[in-house]
Amino acid sequence: MPTLLRRALAVIAVLLVPVAGGAISAFATFDAQYAHGPDRPVPAAAPAFDPAKPTAVVVIGDNGAVVSDALAPYEILVASGRFNVYTVAPRRRPLPLTGGLDLVPDLSFAELAELTGGAAPTLAVIPAMPDVGRPSTGPVTSWLRDQASRGTLLLSVCNGAGVLASAGLLDGRSATAHWMRIGSFESDYPAVNWVHGERFVDSGTVVTTAGVLSGIDGTLHVIERLAGPTVAANAADAVGWRYFGDPPPVVTGIPVPAPAAVVNAAWTWAPPTVGVLLTPGVGEIDLASVFEVHDKSLADRTLAVSADGGPIRSRHGLTFLPRADLAGAAPDLDRLLVPGAGVRVGRVPDGLKPVYVHSGQDFAYDDAVRDLARTTDVATARWAAETMELPTDGLRLDGPAWPWAQTALPLLLILLGTVAVIFLPRLRDNVRGHSA
């Protein structure tokens, strides 16, 4: 075999293990984002309805939605005090939000129509969903087209714009989406005028927002349109959003800390399991902040647990189903996070120390990002903040600078492979020489 070919094969052999291992790990990480929980009975629901108020709904797809895209607008709309607010889906069954938080929607589409006497909602919020453009989104896109024809104002959050575009509801309009996806949307939906660098774009009967927390600015903008600036400002204050009225710019290209996410996704081969304790009355944004930040980090896996494994009701009445009870999950947990300002839990299993994420003094996502920086690394925390469109001016992050352990793993494998390629042939030749 020619020397050049042997060397080329040796290089391939050296790189094969870390590259293949990294690819397998990365695919497993992304596949886990929308994994469904076990089948369980659905708690009964009897949501209140005030006919004097307009109705706003947050739409969850049959395969779930991004946790912050759904829960942040929900809490802000409720905090405004001006709407009947519900989560709705084609069917009322547990649906996964990113990070492994299972939500039971308040109503199915049919139940919503029955509750409202057939009236279309005033506002429909469309979060990012995992199956944009696929047949599985058909029930959602058909329903949205029907509501839009009856005058419903549509608000997409992040890549929820892709859901609207796939339904044909953005054709001929200006719209925006998350900076990581807007380029592919330009190719997939050329009839839309895609706008880069804006936190939200108002095209009249449709408002679209950029990445994740830009949805807060879009929601407040819609509240201002429907209920006035004072109501919107009060809603912003209620959730601790300090950027209302002067939205900062959004990311328009790949941010500097992006390699940290690649390293985490590819070479965190045994990701730690972080338990997230669901407690009755927890704020929806508090809850979303923990699952969102850790999901974006690609560095660990979150597991929703409750004290007894039973469902919990959040501050404003949403129903969440944990995937385990705390005692049963404890041996597999590396950390236990407790979302919610002022929340305190009683006895926890030996070996676990509850970490109370939220101080109540800052926006919930600031606290979650700071916790990630302390326990993972600053580069990963900054990546999470950038992908969420969370402004970090004045946000101090302390912790290791970089995911060094994950970075060392492929380098070690390459080193071991190089040693094997160089010395194993020599060892073989020596053995053959002694045998002769």
Automatic annotation (TrEMBL):
<protein>
    <submittedName>
        <fullName>AraC family transcriptional regulator</fullName>
    </submittedName>
</protein>
<dbReference type="InterPro" id="IPR002818">
    <property type="entry name" value="DJ-1/PfpI"/>
</dbReference>
<dbReference type="Pfam" id="PF01965">
    <property type="entry name" value="DJ-1_PfpI"/>
</dbReference>
<feature type="domain" description="DJ-1/PfpI">
    <location>
        <begin position="57"/>
        <end position="224"/>
    </location>
</feature>
<keyword id="KW-0812">Transmembrane</keyword>
<dbReference type="InterPro" id="IPR052158">
    <property type="entry name" value="INH-QAR"/>
</dbReference>
<keyword id="KW-0472">Membrane</keyword>
<keyword id="KW-0732">Signal</keyword>
<dbReference type="InterPro" id="IPR029062">
    <property type="entry name" value="Class_I_gatase-like"/>
</dbReference>
<feature type="signal peptide">
    <location>
        <begin position="1"/>
        <end position="28"/>
    </location>
</feature>
<feature type="transmembrane region" description="Helical">
    <location>
        <begin position="401"/>
        <end position="424"/>
    </location>
</feature>
<keyword id="KW-1133">Transmembrane helix</keyword>
